[in-house]
Amino acid sequence: MSNIDPASWGLNTLAVHAGASPCPATGARITPIYQTNGFVFDDLDHGADIFNLKRAGFSYSRGANPTTAALERRIAALEGGTGAIAVASGQSALLLIVSTLCATGDRYVSANRIFGGSLSLSKRLESRFGIGVDWAAPTAADIEAVIGPKTRGIFIESVINPTGEVVDLPGIAAVAKKHNIPLVVDNTLATPALLRPIEHGADIVWHSASKFLAGSGQAIGGLIVDGGSFNFAGDGRFDLISGPWAEYDNLVIPDAYPKTAFMTACRLIGLREFGPGMAATTAFLILMGCETLPLRMRKHCENAEALAAHLAAHPAIDAVSLPSLPTSPNHNLARAVCPDGLGSIFVVTLRGGEPGARSALKQLKLFSHLVNIGETKSLVSHPASTTHRTLTADEREAFGISGGTLRISVGLEDIADLTADWDQALAA
Amino acid sequence: MSAKHPGFSTLAIHAGASPDAATGARATPIYQTSSFVFDDVDHAASLFGLQAFGNIYTRIGNPTNAVLEERVAALEGGTAALAVASGHAAEFLTFHCLMQPGDEFIAAKKLYGGSINQFNNAYKNFGWNVVWADSDDPSTFEAALTERTKAIFIESIANPGGVIVDIEAIAKIAKKANIPLIVDNTMATPYLIKPFEFGADIVIHSLTKFLGGHGNSIGGILVDGGSFNWVGDKRYPMLSAPRPEYNGMVLGETFGNFAFAIAARVLSLRDLGPALSPFNAFLLLTGIETLPLRMQRHCDNALTVATHLSTHAAIDWVNYPGLPGDRYHNLAKRYSPKGSGAVFTIGLKGGYQAGVKLVTNLKLFSHLANIGDTRSLVIHPASTTHKQLTDAQRSAAGAGSEVVRLSIGIEDAADIIADLDQALAA
């Protein structure tokens, strides 16, 4: 397999093959689950060299593991990045990226319309570690307006949770380039099957792999992809990446790893020191999920657009956020940035307000009432009482969330069964 | 579920599974436990005596495996199923329920090689005698019937691919003789063909192939169609006679239209032991969720690749029923209109050496003995699985020197074709 050029492979082929090859020791075709803590060294020098990063290899699964490494190579290939790190959750991914780019006293710009967990983590990092966040609406102009001398990163979601709206990724990337600040994109809702932010100018991409990448709601995990596009060398703003590491014989990461400087620093501080690694068994499950990602995403999008159109025409529904609807103010931008589909997560607002939402939740049978998204199964949740419970009323309004709002994650069932479930739930 | 008759895609995701009653967990838990605690002595006794349904010990049944069983039963349109350690085990347990020493069954000649070996060799030790018939000529099944015939065994799409079997014609012969028809539906999966709709009584699968789909777990399953009446039929004492293991219970009477699945569990699996690990059941269940998407892509890719190869200068012939003009094309349109599966054989003009060269030069294809993986797979039977045979034996087995078997994956068809082209040109 190494003899043909993966650079020429299509996305479906990459989803199945990238980063994995038959096990050289046994011939096993499927990536083994290396559910081991330690890896035996050949001798003392071998161990010392691995610890000093003088040679590649595995020592201890907190820092790196061959099963998670296969997943890291696969997501890097799918996103078009130079390398990746697998971590225990999407939350861990965000924590590791922020703490690699920013020291206490530094700041970063974050879109104000993001996943509630990201919002909470940003607030926590500010109050607990003194890493400041400047909120902005996810547009190029609003983001540029809050960039300051201490800004060390711009953080956005490509497709916004929970509305499914798409941001102006090229426009925001141009602002990031102009100010020479890394652009960090949460690509969880789009996945590389629909959108590859690095192609649009992102420098770092991350995922909650718990969603569409794993795909069946069967694993919690996070992934960080290095675009290899930002030049950290000699940049004193990012001393963790550009400065010498005393612990590794004054290693200067961008010199040793010019294409994966961010990832290398992130792995050293994030995995070796903070420690939220991904279990090998989890990596295996997510690798399996990736194999069907392009097939699943196409069907997720088809089902979501059909259900959104059905609900938009329903008398009990006041509003549907998915920008596939021609009436959405985000429609043209969404189609331009994300032509292959918009994912399958959106919100609907019921005319009956919170009582209406409560009744629908109770009546829905095929849609499971839970707070994950991006599964083969269709899911529904009530943001105002769960994921967005701690926000102020104003913040909720900015998200377009009221007591009558339900978040929908459309699965892969037959569309006729999905529309029938909503029809009976709204009629009840 | 809201729909009275959920669609196939809905069943593939939901059938048999519901949120965990104890914790709310939405994904089916992996009950990696050997045993289950009894409420009290009476509860234990009723479970052992088959007076109550419940979990005892994972060799006999497990809640994770039970979800898999219900899901495959729903997809096939059967009444119940039993998941076991492999496709081979599913066959073995099926025949264990039906056969006594000295009995016979009729099997199609074109079968998975592993089944042929099991029938020809392993079953001899039990006095179970296979009689071979030609699935291209259903009358050969009728001609092979004797008083000792206890079952007919066929594959819906026959391994190594390219053969569609006229299930309905053979089912009529089985009905007339009042013996169960067993269909191995591994190559088709219920997405393409549901053998019960054509008169099958029992369906079996190697779950290892398309149902699991990722080449990551060995597993098998047997599905009870609920269509065969065992009651009072002395030819099948496992189902019709009082069982000493269970206080004289007659399983066929007690369990009605799912008695066969029960017998396979409480007589065969319990005593012979090839249980499926719950972890494998979980992986297989997860695979089944994407079965409709994968199978359609497998079939679409296979047709594209077969069409391309059918005009390739290095290729002598392509056996793929999806191709117009193929001898099984009309049967494919009738039985498997969504596609003809993903496994087929090609004949190379360059013979044996060309076969060796092809598998050596292919890069995207993996050279291995499985089929039904997301990855494209290839094998040259003459130099591997059939190497010990003479040329004449190989040809008779459909594994002539020039024959290469392909299992087309879900990659981009353009990448699969590019790999074949470079390997054939090398």
How does this model look, in words?
- The complex is a heterodimer of chains A (428) and B (426).
- Chain A is an alpha/beta fold.
- Chain A is built from 17 helices and 14 strands.
- In chain A, the strands form three sheets. Chain A has a seven-stranded mixed β-sheet with strand order 1-7-6-5-4-2-3, with helices on both faces.
- In chain A, strand 4, helix 7 (169-178) and strand 5 (183-186) form a beta-alpha-beta unit.
- The termini of chain A are far apart.
- Chain B is globular, with a radius of gyration of 22 Å.
- Chain B has a seven-stranded mixed β-sheet with strand order 1-9-8-7-4-2-3, sandwiched between helices. A five-stranded mixed β-sheet of chain B has the order 10-11-14-13-12.
- In chain B, helix 5 (113-120) links the parallel strand 2 and strand 3 (129-133).
- Chain B has 426 residues and is of the alpha/beta class.
- Chain B has helices at residues 8-14, 41-48, 63-76, 87-98, 113-120, 139-144, 167-177, 189-192, 237-240, 251-255, 259-272, 278-288, 291-310, 329-335, 351-361, 391-396, 413-425; strands at residues 80-84, 104-108, 129-133, 149-155, 157-158, 163-164, 181-184, 202-206, 220-224, 315-319, 343-348, 366-367, 377-379, 403-407.
- Chains A and B meet through helix 1, helix 12, helix 13 and helix 17 of A and helix 1, helix 12, helix 13 and helix 17 of B.
Write the layout of secondary structure elements.
The complex is a heterodimer of chains A (428) and B (426).
Chain A: H1 11-17, H2 44-51, H3 66-79, E1 83-87, H4 90-101, E2 107-111, H5 116-129, E3 132-136, H6 140-146, E4 151-157, H7 169-178, E5 183-186, H8 191-194, E6 204-208, E7 222-226, H9 239-242, E8 244-245, E9 251-252, H10 253-256, H11 261-274, H12 280-291, H13 293-312, E10 317-320, H14 331-337, E11 345-350, H15 353-363, E12 368-369, E13 379-381, H16 393-398, E14 405-409, H17 415-427
Helix pairs in contact in A: 1-3, 3-12, 4-11, 6-7, 13-17, 15-17
Chain B: H1 8-14, H2 41-48, H3 63-76, E1 80-84, H4 87-98, E2 104-108, H5 113-120, E3 129-133, H6 139-144, E4 149-155, E5 157-158, E6 163-164, H7 167-177, E7 181-184, H8 189-192, E8 202-206, E9 220-224, H9 237-240, H10 251-255, H11 259-272, H12 278-288, H13 291-310, E10 315-319, H14 329-335, E11 343-348, H15 351-361, E12 366-367, E13 377-379, H16 391-396, E14 403-407, H17 413-425
Parallel strand pairs in B: 2-3, 2-4, 4-7, 7-8, 12-13
Antiparallel strand pairs in B: 1-9, 5-6, 8-9, 10-11, 11-14, 13-14
Helix pairs in contact in B: 1-3, 3-12, 4-11, 15-17
